């Protein structure tokens, strides 16, 4: 009985009070929950001050008190005492739902799910505009209230520096951007996907993602988001009497639901880790396909799955379409020599050498994506140079290689965020993800190869012409039944 009474009493506290509008449940006073978390961190001596850095990499000292601000979208001055609060959504679960989460970066382990706040829960079967608009009606006023009013920290009011975290589709939807498949797929700049016969002048002006670290995209601005919010008050671009041209809307096709400075959008370090590791492994399959043909590529894919499972010791997880989890990507990076040795028996020496050099660079700089501690100015400079060398080297070595939006973010934008905030790992979406039980690599890579082959047969990928010749490379025996089942 005493326990029940304590639970009822706790539920009535401001930090725990929840309500429902019929479509979802959420905290009534999120500020109280954030202040309670900060109070707990300070009481446990776990609260850590976070300072922004200038262009020279030096920390800027905060000396001013926060007295409120009018504009929620305008970041607080670096001279004002603040706390760093991250906001993100995670979609998934046995019953499809969208969980809103708040985390505080002013602690040693901010990415831990146990150190986060479950802000709200909404049923969500589709990632469409209407679903996000309903969610925004609940969360945006509270987030704006946090940014304009701040939070109490030990009796003094501090500004809230809001950082948006999450996977790419979530972050682009909040600003009216339609994601990685549109003409200007980057959330941080205007670089176009690639140069075509029709868009040469636009590429010269707005940048080309396929140029790697030299994409030359024009940085997006909060003012442009504000203008798009006004322009799309009555609907999206398609519903306007005269649709806005690309050079004016810069691929912002709908009204931004949350105005935030692009420099305060985390470069999704977890999804960079997952996505680039998978793409890097797939690149090896593509290299064998180009040099030796589909049968040899299929054999390589199977042998690669065996190497990863039995040599490296990792298996994919079914929580997200049989993908890898972050720690497994770190393990693969540390043991990429096994993958390099396997690939070297299938492709020419120069391609194997280029792949090996890229492996070394990726293994060297991957830990920066998960590091929650501060990076020095030298570390930031090395990371910027290394990621550029990684992407540019792959572009030179493999003629068919495509710079995806994640590779573009890695070599063009991640280092800028790192230089500004001092860390990537503490602004990670790690705490939003749910890891589940094991799966098998054979099924994953067989599916990747089948998808690649289908794309080639449909002529949606263009490969350089090359005649395939027989090879004397030894093919490993077929995998055991347990691996083929996945």
Report a brief summary of the structure:
The chain is an alpha+beta fold.
Description of the structure:
- The protein has helices at 2-11, 30-43, 129-149, 168-174, 200-206, 222-231, 246-249, 269-292, 294-312, 326-334, 336-344, 349-365, 377-397, 405-412, 414-421, 441-457, 481-485; strands at residues 18-20, 25-27, 82-92, 97-104, 116-123, 151-153, 156-164.
- The chain is α+β, with helices and mostly antiparallel strands and 486 residues long.
- The chain folds into three domains: 2-164, no CATH class; 184-264, no CATH class; 269-485, no CATH class.
- Strands 1-2-5-4-3-7-6 form a seven-stranded mixed β-sheet, covered by helices on one side.
- A hairpin with a 4-residue loop joins β1 and β2.
- α8 (269-292) packs across α9 (294-312) and α9 (294-312) packs antiparallel against α11 (336-344).
- It is globular and about 65 Å long.
- The relative contact order is 0.11.
- Residues 434-446 and 459-486 have low confidence and may be disordered.
């Amino acid at each position: 009985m005493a326990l029940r009474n304590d639970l009822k009493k706790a539920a009535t506290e401001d930090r725990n009070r929840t309500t429902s509008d019929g479509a979802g449940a959420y905290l009534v006073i999120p500020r109280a929950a954030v202040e309670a978390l900060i109070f707990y961190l300070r009481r446990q001596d776990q609260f850590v001050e976070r300072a922004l850095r200038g262009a020279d990499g030096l920390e800027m000292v905060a000396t001013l008190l926060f007295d409120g601000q009018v504009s929620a979208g305008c970041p607080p001055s670096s001279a004002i005492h603040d706390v760093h609060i991250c906001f993100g959504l995670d979609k998934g679960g046995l019953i499809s739902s969208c969980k809103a989460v708040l985390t505080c970066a002013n602690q040693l382990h901010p990415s831990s799910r146990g150190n986060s706040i479950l802000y709200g829960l909404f049923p969500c079967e589709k990632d469409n505009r209407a679903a996000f608009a309903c969610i925004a009606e609940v969360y945006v006023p509270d987030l704006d209230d946090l940014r304009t009013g701040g939070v109490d920290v030990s009796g003094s009011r501090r500004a809230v520096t809001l950082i948006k975290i999450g996977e790419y589709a979530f972050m682009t939807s909040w600003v009216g951007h339609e994601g990685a498949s549109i003409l200007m797929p980057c959330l941080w700049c205007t670089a176009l996907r690639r140069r075509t016969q029709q868009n040469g002048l636009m590429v010269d002006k707005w940048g080309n993602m396929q140029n790697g670290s030299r994409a030359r995209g024009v940085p997006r601005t909060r003012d442009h988001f504000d203008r798009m919010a006004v322009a799309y008050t009555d609907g999206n671009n398609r519903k306007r009497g005269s649709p806005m041209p690309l050079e004016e809307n810069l691929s912002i096709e709908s009204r931004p639901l949350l105005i935030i400075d692009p420099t305060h959008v985390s470069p999704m370090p977890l999804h960079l880790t997952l996505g680039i590791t998978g793409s890097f492994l797939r690149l090896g399959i593509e290299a064998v396909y180009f040099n030796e043909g589909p049968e040899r590529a299929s054999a390589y894919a199977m042998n690669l799955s065996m190497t990863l499972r039995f040599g490296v010791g990792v298996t994919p997880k079914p929580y997200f379409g049989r993908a890898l989890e972050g720690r497994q990507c770190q393990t693969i990076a540390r043991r990429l020599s096994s993958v390099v040795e396997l690939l070297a028996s299938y492709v020419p020496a120069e391609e194997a050498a280029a792949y090996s050099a890229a492996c070394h660079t990726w293994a060297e700089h991957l830990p920066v994506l998960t590091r929650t501690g501060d990076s020095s100015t030298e570390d930031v400079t090395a990371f910027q140079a290394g990621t550029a060398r990684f992407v540019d080297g792959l572009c030179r070595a493999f003629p068919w290689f495509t710079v995806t939006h994640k590779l573009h973010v890695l070599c063009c934008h991640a280092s800028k965020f790192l230089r500004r905030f001092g860390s990537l790992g503490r602004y990670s979406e790690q705490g939003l993800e749910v890891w589940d039980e094991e799966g098998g690599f054979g099924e994953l890579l067989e599916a990747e190869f089948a998808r690649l082959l289908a794309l080639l047969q449909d002529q949606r990928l263009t490969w350089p012409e090359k005649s395939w010749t027989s090879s004397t490379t030894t093919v490993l025996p077929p995998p055991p039944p347990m691996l083929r089942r996945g």
